[in-house]
Amino acid sequence: MIRRAHISEYFVEGTNREVSHVLLHITEPSTKQERSKGVFFALCEVNHGDLAYIKEIQSMIETVEDAFYSTEDSFAKSLEVGIEAANKRSHHLLEAPKETKLHCFLGALHEDQLAFAFHGDMSANVIYHGKNGELKLLDILSDDKQKSNHVFTSIVEGSLNENDYLHICTRPVARIISSDRLPSIFEDKNPDEISEYIGSTLEKTIAPQSFGGVICQISQFDEEEKEEVEDEEEEKMEAKRPKKILQVATKKEKPSKTIHHTPETNYRPRTNTPDIPLGRRIVEDIGRFLVYFFQKIFRGIWLIIKGSAKWIKYFFFLLTNKSGQREATKSQMKSDIKSVVSGFTSLPLGSKILFVLTILFVSAFIGSILYLQLQENKQAYQQVKQNKIFAIENKIEAAQAKMVYDEDSAFTLVKEAELLSQQALEEYGEDIQITQHYQMILDLLAELKKLESTKADIVADLSDREENSLSSIALIDDHILVFDKDTPSTYRISTLTQSQEKIQNQSLDNIIRANTPKEEDAMVLLRADSSIGLYDSELGSIKAADITHASNQTQLSDIFVYNTRLYAVSPNDKQIYRYSKTGSGYDKGSSWLTGGAALADGALSLAIDGDIFVSYTGGAIEKFSRGQKEAFAISGLEPELEYPIKIWTYNGVKEIFVLDPPQRRIVLLDKSGKLIKQLTASNFDDLKDMAVQPEKKTIYVLSGKMVLKVGY
Fold it and tell me: Structural domain boundaries of the chain?
């Protein structure tokens, strides 16, 4: 018995050739002399290389190939000669720019013998059968990664056992198809099936890098049969080859090379179509006979269908007596039955037997067709189902791979997998495999949503108070002030002792928002009619303050004190106003947005850290700098903001805090809009306002008539 390699390959082009360029070169021998050397193959990846550099790599591969097939040395020695020639001519490849990287694997297979050399970061594994028959994996490059002044440092030799696999691929493939998955992928498959599966998996991965790989498996066949087939193929190829080419081949015998104008290559020499053998002609003759035979069978089936239709018509007239044809139909039926019985009884015994057998055969034939159709439909159903499961698995695996470095892409993939799983559950019911995948998707979503269910401690319970319209809170000097929208009632609560007291208020009702500057020297209060008040922490009293607006129609929804100036958001004017401090309050405001910039509809709240962030009723958040709108987008948040009633941040604070009552949560974003975490609690009900104490990593929340405290 002779061992030989069954070799297959896959290639998937990336979105950016400048980032990654793959060269895949496989040469299968076509003459007896070439077959004595075996199969030569090369797999290279070039990162950030120009066209001239890629052509140099092609030239290097051709140099090794020429030497391998032209020298008279042994199998491994021939490859070594080629490698040495390549090293002498290609040392300048190591002098390329720093960002240009070369990863290359050159090898040859003769029967079960393997010889190879490599450069850079490649992946090469032998997948072999263990003592118990299970597939195991051996990394054949793990112990040889030394640096050298040559492109290739040494030749490695080895052998492959029967039915073992050799898998060489570029490193981007190894990152997507991890090594622990290879045994299950290779189980009970030939190289062509494995290549098709890996290729289809990689095609679903959108990446700038290109992917390429080679798969080999060693199998056995009869030596005499091998020599007879090889000699016959060689004679036919030599007979059809032009004389001039024969002379060239005698001078320098080697297989066809890679097409040079297309860097990504997947090339094998063409073979001549052999004459149709006798066995094939016999099969074709048998096929023609079967066609003729089944034509007769179908004609018989047609006669049966025609006769059945006639008898159906008879029964119709018997049941309905349409046009009074019942009696005539009875007479015709009797005549037909008598004719059939007479014809059958007059047949000789052999014909009777043949007729019965024909009826049985036709019945069996129709039954088998129906059975096969049912089986085909069942298999198609199972195949569609399995394809959907594979699609879900691929989405999950791709999302898991991206979670480390690209959460936005991972989130998109998980949402796509969730939609596929929901559709599959609707179509196939509570399938165990689909249900398990769906649960895995929900776990990944929870991880990506960064939703934390935290404990919210009660700081103050004002349920026994008569006020029913508690609207806002603010922090100053380790105290929390709670304001009522409909009455002048104001409560001061100590964050240290949690004691409560009602403070003096000069009939300032309708307080809807309050803000404390960083200096904590005073607290500015906003009333529903857009007038303001001040809280004096030393006196513990609230009094009215002066403020003048740009117009009498100006309405304010939120205020923020920054660098002694008061900033206010006006939804109806679609403007942010800035007010300077005076002895009795603040002066006439001026428009802060300039150059045609304006707020969108439904502005709710604002926060300032040097730039200004504004939240809107639809869930959007916009960023403004120096009076102009800047790009800002929230990423990684699921579900999206619905009604962000309060937003807060400050200079020196890394987070943006957003209160979203409909979703019963507090959302923490970084200054670029990326999700940090989401906080929720079981007693988050009827959320109205929040105050943040960043130095203590604490958030105070007004929930209904309770003031709650959560850490972040």
Answer: 2-251, 279-346, 371-449, 454-711
Cα separations in angstroms, 531 against 486, 524, 545, 594: 15, 10, 8, 24
The 10s digit of each residue's pLDDT in 9-42 is 999 988 888 889 999 999 877 777 777 888 899 9
Class assignment of domain 454-711?
mainly beta
The DSSP string of 278-330 is: HHHHHHHHHHHHHHHHHHHHHHHHHHHHHHHHHHHHHHHHHHH-GGG-HHHHH
How do beta strands 457-461 and 706-711 pair?
A: antiparallel
- 350 Cβ contact list (under 8 Å, min separation 6): none
CB 411 within 8 A of CB 396: no
Q: Which residues contact 424 (CB under 8 A, 6 or more apart)?
A: 385, 388, 389, 392, 431, 434
Spatial CA neighbour of 78 closest among 69, 86, 87: 69
Instruction: Identify whether the C-beta of residue 181 lies closer than 8 Å to the C-beta of residue 398.
Output: no
Q: Which amino acid is at 577?
A: Y
| Residue 435: alpha-carbon gap to chain centroid | 19
Cα(294)–Cα(431) distance, rounded to whole angstroms?
Answer: 42
User: Among residues 480, 468, 643, which one has the least CA distance to residue 557?
Assistant: 643
| Residue 639 preceded by cis peptide, ω within 30 | yes
Q: Which amino acid is at 132?
A: N
Cβ distance 485 to 688 under 8 Å?
A: no
Q: pLDDT, tens digit, for every residue of 404-451?
A: 788 888 888 999 999 999 999 999 888 899 999 999 999 888 888 888
2-251: CATH number: 3.60.40.10
SS3 566: strand
- Do β-strands 612-616 and 603-608 pair in parallel, antiparallel, or remain unpaired? antiparallel
Three-state SS letters, 333-400: HHHHHHHHHHHHHCCCHHHHHHHHHHHHHHHHHHHHHHHHHHHHHHHHHHHHHHHHHHHHHHHHHHHH
Amino acid at 538: E
283: which residues sit within 8 A by CB, 6+ positions away? none
pLDDT for 70-105, tens place per residue?
Answer: 888 888 888 898 899 888 888 788 888 888 999 999
Contact 347, 355 (CB under 8 A): yes
